[in-house]
Specification:
The chain has about 250 residues and is α+β, with helices and mostly antiparallel strands. Helices cover about 40% and strands about 25% of the residues. The strands form three sheets. It has a five-stranded antiparallel sheet with strand order 5-6-3-9-10, with no helix packed on it. Strands 1-2-7-4 form a four-stranded antiparallel sheet, with no helix packed on it. The longest helix has about 80 residues.
Length: about 250
Amino acid sequence: MRPRLRHRSAAPLLALGLVLGAAGTAAAHVEVGSPTAQALAVDAEVAFSAEGESSTAGITDVKVVLPAGLTPADLTLAKAPAGWTFTPTAEGFTVAGPALAPGTAAEWTVRVLQLPDAASLVFKTLVGYSDGHTDRWIELPQGDTKPQHPAPVLALTPAAPGARALPTDGVTLSASASASASASPPASASGSPSASASGSASAPTVAAGGGADGGGTTAVVLGAVAGVAVLAALVVLVLRRRKSAS
């Protein structure tokens, strides 16, 4: 009877092992976490880990689609495998470099200027391997059904009291435009002084020109007077000579 009991107990253990094995295979995925997983957190580090599922090929690149509220300009690479680089894309970013050893997880960390004001952030991820195949971790739960290739999700705690969103480029540009618009009247006002300055500058120039013309006229008059004086002196000299001769 004991051998039969052992035989019967082995079947459930085998089945449990198969279930755990299948669960282990399905558990291979991309994870995301942050020590400052809070809405509106500033300068937050977000760490990713993509498990290497292949025993023959290594991970060469990972493409991440950013959730709403984040742009590639908000991120900088803080940590990555040796030789890997960060490249912004239209939808998010790519980290890529030399192929990792088969079965090795790709781990990288990005620094985020500010996390959005949201309850959670979904980072759809595509993991590329050296043999050309790609794992797509982009699925979201549908009701009670758990996806086979779930996208990594970062849950955020509510924002701290008084926390506010930092100005975005658009707001900055709008503020700059408003500032420029509000600065326009002073600019035109300063333009008027410039014009009057030009006028006053040209006025002295004209005045200086008039002075120059007056000076020229005076010189001509003085020259004429001097000429008359010289001529009178000559006349007197001639008359005196005539008197002496007579």
